Amino acid sequence: MVRSRILVLGALGASQIALPLRAQDYPSEPLRVQARAPASSPVAIGRFLTENGGVLSQAQAAAVREDLFAHITFRLRRAFAQTGHQYPTPTDSVLAGLFQLASRAGAVGARAVANSMLPGLVAPEELPRDSGLTLSYEAPEFRLRDERLGWELSFPFYFMISAVSRQTLADGNAYAVVMLSTLDAPNAPPDTASSQATVLVVAAAIPASALAAFWSPRLAVQLSQAPSPSSRADGLYFTGTDSSARLRKELLVLPSGSGAVGIAYIGLEGTFQSNRPHYIEVLHRLRTRAVPSN
């Protein structure tokens, strides 16, 4: 997801953080990427949100969130270079403040992350009731569940949850639609900007073949003969490129307990490759289960 920069970040608290480490970390390669610090100011975001937070357009709010997560990415990479740890130190109150600001800008899940660092700072939030999904957070990862269709997806706390909804689309089926954004990473030359890659999750109470038939042309991907990045043998794997936009795309469709779930990965050259280890790990952490019939 390509970002348009605007001013961000504000005065942050100085409380302690306690994020536990997990025995099995997410891949560290995306945290080793060399990237420049965001150009935006750490002071301006608080003022900007205070002055405009109640009247931000959707585009403005999205740009603020993306800029905040660029700062989160930069801080995590700097800490990883210094400590070798993927997760915050107990004294990184700045990171807690960044997530607090992200929650003010409407980032889904950011409240839960901030609250885990500074208990009582902000109240937990719920997903839209009509989405049919539940979101929980146990540091350092989120778990997204669909009890009706029988699937569960885990992803790291530094993924930005861009959108969660349930939509009835052109094929007449109701889909749970979730958009996640990866760490910020430089695009490949000659593009000098940076961007986030997108992980798109779609699920419906239909066979995997039907979900694939509907989504593969919309994402402009084709059935691939290459090995699937998933360890499961029951998936349909698609890939595609858009040379003019310098985009790469993948889609894996798997049967779930009472339907199917598709997980697509889309990114510009450069950030696509940098963040792909996280996409593959998310695929490995997808869980499906049988759903009892009523």
Please characterize this protein's 3D structure:
With 294 residues, this protein is an alpha+beta fold. It has a domain at 130-288: Protein Transport Mog1p, Chain A. 28% of the residues lie in helices and 28% in strands. The chain has helices at 44-52, 58-83, 93-104, 110-117, 208-219, 271-284, and strands spanning 134-138, 141-146, 151-156, 160-168, 174-186, 194-204, 222-223, 236-242, 247-256, 259-268, 287-288. It has a 7-stranded antiparallel sheet, with helices on both faces. Strands 1-2-3-11 form a 4-stranded antiparallel sheet. The chain starts with 43 loop residues before the first helix and ends in a 6-residue tail after the last strand. Mean pLDDT is 85; it is low at 1-23.
Notable traits:
294 residues; alpha+beta; Protein Transport Mog1p, Chain A; 7-stranded antiparallel β-sheet; 4-stranded antiparallel β-sheet; 6 helices; 11 strands; 28% strand; disordered N terminus
**Fraction of helical residues:** 25-40%
- The overall pLDDT, averaged over residues, is 85
- Please tell me the CATH architecture of the domain at 130-288 by its name: 3-Layer(aba) Sandwich
- Output the structural class: alpha+beta
The helix/strand series, from N terminus to C terminus, equals HHHHEEEEEEHEEEEHE
Give a quick account of the main beta sheet: strands, pairing sense, barrel closure.
7 strands, antiparallel
Radius of gyration: 19 Å
Trace the largest sheet across and list its strands: 4-5-6-10-9-8-7
What is the number of beta strands? 11
- Characterize the overall form: globular
- End-to-end distance: 40 Å
The CATH topology of the domain at 130-288? Protein Transport Mog1p, Chain A
Q: Roughly what fraction of the amino acids lie in strands?
A: 25-35%
